[in-house]
Amino acid sequence: MSSTRHSERSEESLNEILRLKPQGATHVGMFDKNRRTAFTLAEVLITLGIIGIIAILTIPSLINKITDLQYKAAFKKNYSVFAQAMKMVEIEDNMVFQKEENWTNLPIYLCKLAQHLKAVKNGLDCSIVLSDEFDPTNDNSFKTDFKWHNEWYQKDTKPIYLNPGYNSNTFQLQDGTLINYGCLNQVFIDVNGFKKPNTVGKDIFYFLLTENGLTFWENAHGNIINACNSEYSTLINSQNYLQDCETGSGWGCSPKYIFNK
Hints:
Number of helices: 6
Number of domains: 1
Structural class: alpha+beta
Order of helices and strands: HHHEHEEEEEEEEEHH
Shape: elongated
């Protein structure tokens, strides 16, 4: 009888041990799992450092791309607005652009354009130009305190300059856009005004005026942009404008942004 009870107690003790062992093992397993999913302070700092380095490398490039898209959109907008202004001058003022060198009415035409574009500043004194006393042979209609850029650059970083005789043919719109007329039928536009980078193909673009509206090829000087200052001129045509935009002066970006949408 005593032996039987001892055997039953031993069996009960063994069962208790077997029942408790899995519980203990499960508890240990959960503890290990929690330890594996936690990060040390060093690991967190290393991760943040890597994220910071990636941000430093990528954010400036992203900002430049966004800025270029904004400049491109602004140029396309100004291209359209300028074309509309030319049409309004034709309809309301009965004036059509002419690119002959001896067109003495050019200052009048530019002042009419400036009116329709609602220019806030002008290198021409339009109060004189649009008066009955205006004498196109007299230079008193040109101002000296408002001109095109003194320093601006091609996309390949080469400095570029206008023929000084065209510096004052400049006006500024309400949004800060600078517009310059020069060399018979060339128009230069800086979409963010006097702010940098002042670079062709970035924030500075061109188009050409004709009797039929705007274009890029019917240049009075054989497709040479800034032709009246030959030292800083560039040949742009329908064959080379894409390459010029990528690796050249940047003038080719103007037709690219209009034609290659």
